[in-house]
Amino acid sequence: MTDHPVTRAAMIDRTANPGPLGLMGFGMTTILLNLHNAGLIALGGAILAMGIFYGGLAQILAGIMEWKKGNTFGTTAFISYGFFWLSLVAIVLFPIMGLTEVESKQTMAFFLTMWGVFTAYMFVATLRINRGLQFVFLTLSLLFFGLAIGDATAISSITVTSGYIGIICGASAVYVAMAEVLNEYYGRIVLPLGYMAMTGQDAPTTAE
Q1: pLDDT digits (tens, 9 = 90+) for 5-44
Q2: What is the set of domains in the chain, with CATH numbers?
Q3: In the chain, what is the greatest distance between 2 CA atoms, to the nearest angstrom?
Q4: What rounded mean pLDDT belongs to the chain?
Q5: Helices in the chain by DSSP H: which ranges?
Q6: Which of 16, 57, 60, 185 has the most CB atoms within 10 Å of its CB?
Q7: What is the DSSP letter of 56?
Q8: Is 195 helix (H, G, I), strand (E, B) or coil?
């Protein structure tokens, strides 16, 4: 009986990194909404449109692409926050369309608290990724809990302060997105993200 050699084929993933798309959709929309929370701009069509298309649909698409790449964290984060943005827009539009009453501050406080809890446990997962994402999720947790407290207490200064935290959070997500793109295309660290040594990614040559 003759033994036949076993041929093993290595699969090379040549699909693009969807992370920057999802992060940019999240970051830019977060900045716009929190400019409103900080009292700097009005809540209007620009924010709602971004919430539907870039914060919402673009993140969901990025999450689906992360699923195809086997990234559980990216799938969970992008699809969840994509639908968060769609839900938030619906909360604003449904009363205008006559489908529901205007949501109470107490209900919004619970809504935001649930998203704060979700973000807090996602932050724990970032402890094994990089410092950039850690900062994004830490400030996002503070944003959700801050806005929830602002709604629960009706203290406007808390909401305004949370708005500024949200601007910082969104800007940090934009930074991470830019870093992933530039680091991949230049093949070196152009914008540092602080990869964790435990993951073996402390000196990446690509965004992955």
Answers
A1: 665 655 677 889 999 999 999 999 999 999 999 999 999 9
A2: 19-199 (1.25.40)
A3: 82
A4: 91
A5: 19-37, 45-52, 59-68, 72-96, 105-126, 131-153, 156-186
A6: 60
A7: I
A8: strand
